[in-house]
Amino acid sequence: MFKNYLKVAWRNLIRNKTFSTINVLGLALGMASSLLIVLWVQDELSIGKQYANADLLYRVMENEIADGRTVTDEDTPGILADELKRQFPEIRYAAGFSSEEDHVLSVEEKVSRQTGCFVGADWFKMYSIPLLSGTAETALNAPNHVAISRKVAQTFFDSPQAALGKSIRFNNRTDYQVAAVFEDLPYNSTDQYDFLLNWNTYLKREPWLNVWENGGPGTRLQLRPEADPEKVNAKLRTFLKGRNKDINATFNIELFLQPEKDAYLYSNFKNGYRDGGRIEYVRLFIIVAVFLLLIAGINFMNLATARSIKRAQEVGVRKAVGAKRLSLIWQFMGEAFLMALLALIIAVILVDLALPVFNQLTDKQLRLPTNQPVFWGFLLGLLVITGCVSGSYPALFMSSLSPVRVLKGSLRISAGTQLFRRGLVVFQFVLSILMIVGTVVVYRQLQYIQTKNLGFDRENLIDVPGEGDIGRKYLSFKQELLQQPGVESVTHIQTNPLRNGNTSDGVEWPGKNPTLSIQFNNTAVGYDFVKTMKLTLVGGRDFSPDFRTDSTNYLINEATAQRLGYKDPVGQPLTFWKRPGKIVGVLKDFHFNSLHVPIRPLIVRLSEEQAYGHILIKTQPGQTKQALASIEAVCRRMNPTFPFRYSFVDANFQKAYKSETVVSTLTTLFAGMAIFIACLGLFGLAAFTAEQRTKEIGVRKVLGASVGSIVTLLSKDFMKLVGVAIVIASPLAWYAMSKWLDGFAYKIELSWWMFGLAGLMAVGIALLTISFQSVKAALMNPVKSLRSE
């Protein structure tokens, strides 16, 4: 019997080539798109969970409560890890973790720039990173020890085994002994580093880390299996009271634990509580995958139901000779599964071909996990779900037909069935319009971000790290650069010009409430800061070598002026970190952090002598290439042991919003796919409708009907359905995109034209799809149409 079902299904597939092609192609594209999304989602969900004891690993977070606001970050005191381990029996291991930065490693004549950080001695005991040589106990237990990756070991020593015990030079200043070699971290690891240094070395090098009032590095820990995280959280909440002298009635820091496995997906916090992050994109694309499968399945249901009259006589004959309804259901479900199987095979081939481009787009290393049973189980599940969803209604509908009515020729599609088919078309286009609106809004927001005036000119602005000799000999370096062709001005800034995380409440001014604690962002800069960044002064002046007292003076932004309460801030006293001075200039507010957060109060101090942060070089328009060659020559001459490195501030800005760019591209891609699949179904329905009304069209043409009137006749019913879809989709899209835009402090306003554009696109695409078949039917020779009469 199964063989007979298969034979009948294959014959029907071959006999109705157009119908079969549309169905298989639609299902294949829907499956391929969904499979790509599932691979991406699976990869996103796996980040931070690759460690053997991932369920016991936590990050210590801070809620800083001051000035009526709660700010959450991972900047903890440098001495926190050891103290927590001493005070909390629930904690098995704890380690500090500095930010990952690029440094120069060298062995004799070999020089290479690698990413590294300082970590506590428990690091390899906490994180199950495979060690190729050395042990977790001895890898980082001495100040002169360094652990390097396989890549670094092969770069300098040819193999991990040969590296053990060898000496490697750090930033051309300090020699370290290789105590361990670890396996290269996977690309989807939450942390990315090539070498690790001892934490106590970091505390000794940066004395400010040993003070409870200062925060900066992160703290990681591993709880014991029997420990209750909630009880640990309750004790952590007040842990800093009595240790941090800044904590008072108006300023408080509460510590809490965030699971390591949640850190990547749930990175956003609002008012001290978790408020999404990458998980929002994961949820979004899961919904998109479901949408695409639904649209493809609806195509199958619609076309199969529409063609029911063609196969009604077959069903009537089968029932008349004794076929049971169940056997007919199995037959039609078998046809659906056969099409789904063909579509799945094509989908897997399409995904395999598309993965290299998809990986380049998303910056991932996805592949088809054909060696994993779970993958084949997923494909089987996809086949079953798609086959059942797309084949269930046609099978139930066809098997319910009355053989008497069918063989008498009196079969008519009921109003309920027609309403169901129209509802499916509306549903398809609701989903498609939602995705079009999403594409338009995401694209506009991204354009807004990329073109927004940040308050400074990021064009032709080069960022050179102040490392090695050029940091220590900044004044000579600056003078050399200013003599080079194409260089307009030079300055330096302690923090990243696009990401300033330095905050402090060590600010005093006359009239300040002594119990009030306000966090101010701060940074140190060199002369010509305003000129190089092309900032706008709303009052006062920039720092100048003509004023010796500027070494203790300050620049502030408008947000700071407002917070201080000065009507005319210029010349007013200000004390920062117990260093009294005056405000010499007020800067128009500019963005020194992500556009996801509002502009905060900023205090800028002068530090001209040394530059260990970022050296900013403004080049003259049209002379950047020439200037870069000159800058490189000066760097190689003054800093020969450090490979030349630079970046454009504008390019760094684009990279900062890479996630949004990827989401925009993927949304556009999958929205286009949804529209294409929906239109495939519409094309099939239009073709079938035209075929059903062939004789009616022939009669109308004989009676003088024009091509235009016939096209209108065949198109108007479909266009009504698209119109209904627009009405339903618009409020849904407005709500969804409003929620997404809430994640930005600076955002576009949703406008009616965005929904109008999406509606016009849906109408236009649908009209083109329908018109092709309508015009073809209208141009048919009526003699051929009526020949059988």
UniProtKB/TrEMBL annotation:
State the compartments where it is located: Cell membrane
**Which segments constitute the ABC3 transporter permease C-terminal domain?**
286-392, 669-782
Q: What is this protein called?
A: FtsX-like permease family protein
Bilayer disposition of the protein? Multi-pass membrane protein
Read off the InterPro entries from this record: ABC3_permease_C, MacB_PCD, Macrolide_Exporter_MacB
**Annotated source species:** Spirosoma terrae
**Transmembrane domains' residue ranges:** 21-41, 281-301, 328-355, 375-398, 419-443, 669-690, 718-738, 750-770
Instruction: Show which residues constitute the signal peptide.
Output: none
Q: Where is the MacB-like periplasmic core domain?
A: 20-238, 430-632
The taxonomy runs: Bacteria, Pseudomonadati, Bacteroidota, Cytophagia, Cytophagales
Enumerate the GO terms in the molecular function aspect. Answer: transmembrane transporter activity
Q: Cross-referenced PANTHER family, in alphabetical order?
A: ABC-TYPE MACROLIDE FAMILY EXPORT SYSTEM PERMEASE COMPONENT 2 (PTHR30572:SF18), MEMBRANE COMPONENT OF TRANSPORTER-RELATED (PTHR30572)
Supply the alphabetized keyword list: Cell membrane, Membrane, Transmembrane, Transmembrane helix
A cellular component annotation (GO) from this entry: plasma membrane
User: One matching Pfam family, short form?
Assistant: FtsX
